[in-house]
What we know:
Elements: E1 8-13, E2 18-21, H1 27-33, E3 51-56, E4 59-61, E5 76-78, E6 82-84, E7 88-91, E8 103-114, E9 119-126, E10 139-143, E11 149-153, E12 166-172, H2 178-186, E13 192-199, E14 213-219, H3 223-236, E15 241-248, H4 257-266, E16 270-276, H5 286-292, E17 300-306, H6 308-320, E18 328-332, H7 354-374, H8 381-395, E19 399-400, E20 405-408, E21 430-436, E22 438-440, E23 443-444, E24 447-453, H9 457-478, H10 483-496, E25 499-501, E26 508-509, E27 535-543, E28 549-555
Parallel strand pairs: 1-7, 14-15, 14-17, 15-16, 17-18
Antiparallel strand pairs: 1-2, 3-5, 3-7, 4-6, 8-9, 8-13, 9-12, 10-11, 10-13, 19-22, 20-21, 21-24, 22-23, 25-27, 26-27, 27-28
Amino acid sequence: MTTNPTHxxxxxxxxxxxxxxxxxxxxxxxxxxxGVAVPFSCKRGECGSCRAQLLEGSVERIAPPSEAAYQVDxxxxxxxxxxxxxDLRLRFAHWSAPALAPSRHSAKVLxxxxxxxKVTRLVVELQSAEPFRCAPGQHAQFVLxxxxxxxxxxxxxxxxxxxxxxxxxxxxxxxxGLFTEQRLAALRPADLLELxxxxxxxxxxxxxxxxxxxxxxxxxxxxxxxxxxxxTALASGAFRTVxxxxxxxxxxxxxxxxxxxxMARAHAGFRWTAVPSSRVEVKQHVQHAASRAAHDxxxxxxxxxxxxxxxxxxxxxxxAEGLPKARFVSEVFLPSTKQxxxxxxxxxxxxxxxxxxxxxxxxxxxxxxxxxxxxxxxxTTGEAIAVADRHLRxxxxxxxxxxxxxxxxxxxxxxxxxxxDRQRRLREDDVYTVDLGPVWDGYxxxxxxxxxxxxxxxxxxxxxxxxxxxxxxxxxxxRGLSGAALYDFASELAGTHGCALVRETAGHRVSDFxxxxxxxxxxxxxxxxxxxxIWVLEVQVRDLERPIGAFFEDVLLKN
Length: 559
């Protein structure tokens, strides 16, 4: 028996893996077969998740594009729709491969000394024969009793400093803190701690063309997070200017002032500014100090590390002054919690946070009524989808993880997998559904609802049915129902509204993009109680008498 030989290879830029491409099947099939992490979702050429820039080589389409096909830009391809005709070199402009999976280590205390009255410098050495690998800006978690964890930025560059397993942390004492006040004060050299890392997407990025300036914003011990990025930037010589704004209560709280002064003397383009808040009538903030400096924001990238209020306000202020949205990289200091034990179907990326999902949900919920208001009678389904996608781009969603679905009239009965009449026009007296799947700052949003034009009582009834079933099913989930039981319950409820539940629309995961890397599981098949904030409950109903339907979906949330 013979097998088709492998003719070509694909390399993912800038420094990704190289993998073989088989004769048959798509580029996406080849990557997934070899376990190579690439972005994808629908596999039908409609969502655009697997689009890539073709840097070298040539491809051919497997099949002609459909009417619903995602329109790629010049020089791009969809991995799910193409096969290679030569060796390839591809790049994903919209996505980066997941960070290295964090690992658990025993860590021996080397140094535990005060930097100020409230900040301690802790240096540990990992007890491992393998060198620890992390990117500048990442953090590690100290594992405490009963699953409690405390996260702290890694303040040094272990590999570049010749001590790959020696990690430094700058830790602010918090009154009553389990680690910072109770454990930290009792530590002595040679004591052992448990540590896991690296974590976080707040990492140094080599500047793209057109970026000439770097601005670093830090509050308190947020300086520990930006310090390795500062070191890397200065060593690279990649920027014309590098500016640090360090927010503290008193100027003397800048515990690294002497070191920063040395860096400024050694690097002509570097300047740093202490921003004390306690000695002025009106409190100063680092973002305002940066704003007053009149940076060339269009040619700048910003890294911000510290309290949530600073990060939120700095993002809004500097983007209003011309900073491109994609050039604000941040790490927010939030309270640590117990580690969440997840079902194997509930994997997330190393940088996942519930706050990221909640923010993606909020922005999707705000976008949906705006888009619905733009859909007018006489518009075709295809035109409505284009209107929705243009509006999402204007709002800052760089791309969608699933295609935007719009259904008019009789097509509201159809699932996302079924074709619709893209030339069907919305009537003055009609019902229609909109299902959005945008990606906001690396997190998947997913929100959908039904809208009614006119005064048709059945249109209003099915619309209420989908929303009511969702609310009652979510309450049942909060009481402990499994995913499978939720859909059985929803099916019973649909009958009370004169509708039938569309069981093919079965709910799904959301996560940091793309959740497909962690498995494309269906909520209706989950024989366990689904976790909070990572599952979307989809409710689609069909009327028992008329050719109409309704749809509602949202993320399942405990509160």
